[in-house]
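Predict the 3D structure for this chain.
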Amino acid sequence: MTLIDTGFVETFRHDGVVALRGAVDDRWLGRLAEAIDANMASPGPYGKNHADEGGGVYFGDYVNWQRFAAFRDVADAGPLGEIAGQLMGASRVQLFHEHVLVKEPGTTSATPWHQDLPYYCLDGGQTVSIWVPLDHVSKAVCPHFLAGSHFDRSTYVPRRFKTLLPLEGDTSKYKPFPNIDEERDAGQLRSFDLEPGDVIAFDYHTLHNAPPNETGARRRAVSLRFIGEDVRYVARPHEVSPPFPEMGLELAMGDRLPEDWFPVVWQG
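Done. Predicted structure below.
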């Protein structure tokens, strides 16, 4: 079964990001909304408000798919696992983790430019995050992506979002973080007006940010992170997020990621 046109796959591979319209139907949106509400009411150990003091509410939490079944179900019983497989060119798709991100109205905190891969305890070419908004998202509050920034597979210094200082540990192997000028680089920027059901898919190497939500509307989203069969475990010499080694994951460099931690959600 083909869920997406080959043109979208080509855009994803060329730009490192693509918007897919109407990828998630109302039934799945309803289940995800219920799961987000339940997650916010009962955060996991890593759930918190990421907003600056007095700057509104920016709730984030991750690795709760075992408590809130919709986060996994939308990938295996729903469409997202197969979509991930088609975008990555993978025959076997695992859920790396889900990440709930809710910016309430009037939240002034922005997410700075960054790249996801160096924060993760893995490496490989078959990676995709699928960002699923549950509310209308205008370009004013939509994440921005630097098209083509994934192409040479460069990895840049992973930084703390509030201070922009490198993560604790050895980050010397990474390239210095590039200077991104949104006015100068406007031709490469991708941002989208989205309705519930639309999604954005992007490579773990793709540079992106997220503006504040200074509108009068909520911006609820869950990002599902997927990996294909070429991805392997990497022991980073610095902190990682999510902190899977601290959670008890014990692997050697180059190991496949185990299915009990990272379930298979689609096979072609």
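The chain has a mean pLDDT of 96.
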